[in-house]
């Protein structure tokens, strides 16, 4: 994505993409409802669901493999002039041209950079609440709804995810440096969700189901902060490391999340909602606030250095001619695979 779109566009595109992905409960819910009526003996309805979705996924994957280019330079649907323009238009990212050779010093810098771990902590804490997505049908059915009602009611979560992520995409399009604020606003319904599920009586099943649905606004900070982590890093090896550690946090969170639904806590799962309130709503909100303050201060420090002419716009590259003569070339820093710490012209998105 970083090779095709500016950082501003990447944030919008990620929200749009996840608005489609997170709205899958709408289509899967109605599809599940439809296959429940299929009667094919030992070949159970859930198997038909796997077959239908699996075949569609494979077909789409083939089209993506054949038609989607790995960089603007290989975009055959563009002319050579348009390919050059596609490369030049992302110059404002100040992230340099990717050099896909592993660079040890960039890896070490990524590991030592505090914001790397803040982003990873956000992924870990935020994804601890992902278990509710996998448990939604069981939770709704525990309120006394039938299998058919539960299947249809589960589609509402997709509607909420679609509209909140679409709203995030529109807001990102109309504003700049609003990633943190958008994410923080999206965590408010998650807080309300836990409070409703803790406070409402078991007899108020519609209030409880609203509490479950409200949790689905957290798809917004997931999509926004994930691309924010990538945009806040430069240098191919460093960026790759940051994204990898972010997904390590994502994976650990998803490992922990199902463990929060202990059978002994049924049916109210009160300890679960308390944990989700503290660790999957309040904690990631604090992390986002810290990240915004930290990156904002770093931008101001760099602005001050640039105003004092202490920031170099050019770097030097040494090459060797066919005759074995070493030649030093002065190039723009945007032509180098520098990290965000090495390139002081780099500005962090907020």
Number of strands: 2
Percent helix: 55-70%
Instruction: Return Rg in Å.
Output: 24 Å
Quote the distance from N terminus to C terminus: 19 Å
The strand order across the widest sheet is 1-2
Overall 3D geometry? globular
The CATH C-level name is Mainly Alpha
Contiguous uncertain segments of 5+ residues: 315-319, 327-331
CATH superfamily: MFS general substrate transporter like domains
> Total number of helical segments?
14
Largest sheet: 2 strands, antiparallel
Estimate nothing, just give the exact number of structural domains: 1
Written as H for each helix and E for each strand, in order along the chain, the element string is HHHHHHHHHHHHHHEE
CATH architecture: Up-down Bundle
Strand content: under 5%
Q: Could you explain the architecture of this structure?
A:
This protein has 350 residues and is mainly α. The chain has one domain: Growth Hormone, Chain: A. The chain is 64% helix and 4% strand. The protein has 14 helices and two strands; from the N terminus they run H-H-H-H-H-H-H-H-H-H-H-H-H-H-E-E. Strands 1-2 form a two-stranded antiparallel ribbon. A hairpin with a 5-residue loop joins strand 1 and strand 2. Helix 6 runs antiparallel to helix 14. The longest helix is centred in the C-terminal third of the chain and has 38 residues. GO terms for molecular function: transmembrane transporter activity. It is a multi-pass membrane protein. Keywords: Membrane, Transmembrane, Transmembrane helix, Transport. This is Allantoate permease.
